[in-house]
Amino acid sequence: MKILRFLLGVAGVFLAVCVFAFLVAVFTLPASQSFENEVEIAAAAEKVWEVVADKKRFTEWQTQLEKIEVIDGRNWVEYPKGSPEPLKFSLAGDERPAKMEFRYTMGDSFSGHWKGEISPAADGVRLKTTDSYAARDWLTKIFIYAFFDMDSFANDWNSKLKQRVESLNN
């Protein structure tokens, strides 16, 4: 009987620690974050924007996407592999050759903004991207923090964009 009480006590303490950690996460994790990344691309700005604007071909170079559904010239839907919901995108600004901006949402729990700005570089252009997101509920906030590294995702996206543009530029 003492062993059973001891085990129940240990389980209770463990449960209390888990609840406490969960509550700390809910109240201390930021609901929004922003990341800046830069990549040099050996191509003209027009070529970079041509690839970014060609949504129908994203799955050829963005391997984490299952498919793209182009709604019209300003709106499209991306279906990431393994994602519970698609990402709905809209063009928020097009000031080529200097910059482009997109807004996106995933259901009612997540929204974001992407901005790309191009400046001259020695062998082409420098693309500076700013990715910002906001989680609208505590569960999404914890899920994003635990399972999704936005900065790493943005770096990977930029790297694949660079490879795609430079392969078409040759």
Word description of this protein:
This protein has 170 residues and is of the alpha+beta class. It folds into two domains: 1-30; 33-169, START domain (Alpha-D-Glucose-1,6-Bisphosphate, Chain A, domain 4, 2-Layer Sandwich). The chain is 41% helix and 37% strand. The chain is built from five helices and seven strands, in the order αβααββββββαα. It has helices spanning 2-28, 45-53, 58-61, 138-147, 150-169, and strands at residues 32-41, 65-70, 75-80, 87-95, 99-106, 110-121, 124-135. It has a seven-stranded antiparallel β-sheet with strand order 1-7-6-5-4-3-2. A hairpin with a 3-residue loop joins strand 4 and strand 5 (99-106). It is elongated, with a radius of gyration of 21 Å. The chain starts with a helix and ends with a helix. The model has no long low-confidence stretch (mean pLDDT 87).
